[in-house]
Amino acid sequence: MIKRIARTQLFYSVAEKIVPILTITTILLPVWMSPVHPAIASYFILGYLIYFLYKSIKTVYFAAISFNLLKKAGKIHWLKKLEKEKSHRDYYHYIIITNYKESVSKMDETLKYIKEQHYPKDRISIILAMEEREGQPAKERSAILSKKYAADFREFDTTYHRLIPGEIVGKASNETYAAKFIDRLITKNNLDRKKVLITVCDADSLLPSDYLSYLTLEYIHDKKRLFHFYWAPVLLYNNFWKLSLPIRVQSILSSVVRISILPQRENLIHVSTYSTNMWLLNEVGFWDPDIIPEDWHIWLQAFFKFGKEVRTLPIYLPISADAVYTDGFWKTYKNRYEQERRWAWGVSDIPYAIVRFFDTPHIDPIIKIRKILFLVEHHLFWPSSFFILTLSAYIPPLINPMFKRTVMGFLLPKLSSFILTASSLMLVFILYFDHKMREKVKVKTELKKLPMLFIQWYFLPVITFFFGSLPALDAHIRILFGKKIEYKVTEKD
After folding, report:
1. What are the Glycosyltransferase 2-like domain coordinates in residue numbering (predicted)?
2. Exposed end of the chain (fewer CB within 10 Å): N or C?
């Protein structure tokens, strides 16, 4: 009975609106609660601020752990270690590079890094996953790159994905088309799906030279390898000094946060560029072709089939990628806003998870609840953080003048300021980790640019509003009112 109800469109629509409603309720709580229960509103605000301080300290703590592990991993000769394994030549790598209207120069740089992998080239195959709707430019790009690189790899193929009914424009449908093509090649060549590793690589992701060796060794030693994804932190440093101030600040924060989540295995879910095996992809039916945020979604697909066995394991080598950058000032900001909104569209994974909760009795309900709560926390904090952290402490005394005369009314703005100041001290550590990680991917800091690296943080509240909370709130409101977004490839050249 419950399963049947959970599969209805009405149930999905209700589940879809839960977090957007919670988001708006959270943002407006200081406003609607202050006239009647200002003390409750104040305790809520203080609780939120303390939680933010906790998250800030936690980010720095795990970033420090991760940084040390990255430093150690960078000193290891991974191919030499791998070659000690008798079975190391039994494994094959297929790298799917999804691309749409990318420049030849950008793709060329990505392929150059793959060519420089410290790994046998007769075990590496490249699939350029293109979109048929791009037309002749895609074919020309494929021809140029094939001519230059085909001889360097075991196989070098191009797929042209055609949109069919039931699919939407996006990485997921393109990746599924490319993966099914690879699956046919595997069958034709009598390869074992369990020994074929698939890496989904963005067109601007530069894989470190030891990535495939490290990945293969990790996979061989992993006893539950069939159920796992593997992820190296994708740092937005390729075009760091070309970026305008707001985009650069966000690229720093995003990169350090990605480093910090690596050691947190319970909640580690991959983004952007990641690896897994063909057997797992085949078992879950590849990527659902009708969704936009595909990286967390494919993890959830696997989780709701195999339960607690599914995890993402860290690869402690940094991948360098591009942040948003175009030739126009306002165009860059528009693209960055749309990119953040697209990422925040991941809130649509929550109704999917709620529905799957009821049709997967073989999975421990406690584990499922924990995963759903993790998703809710992530997508609730994202759009609400700016409003609660920067504005809410002044609302109860403003709306309820009587409350201003109480001890709590007097202390609330001061306590809020103190907690935010304590949180902002974490920026010192973030700056340090950012500097060190940029050194690892060979992005130098000139002495004359140092002052700007410090001055830019004064604009953080404005930046987090326009390129963090606002686009996330936009995504939530669109879902609440049934308005969809279209997948747009972010310009980075």
Report:
1. 197-431
2. N
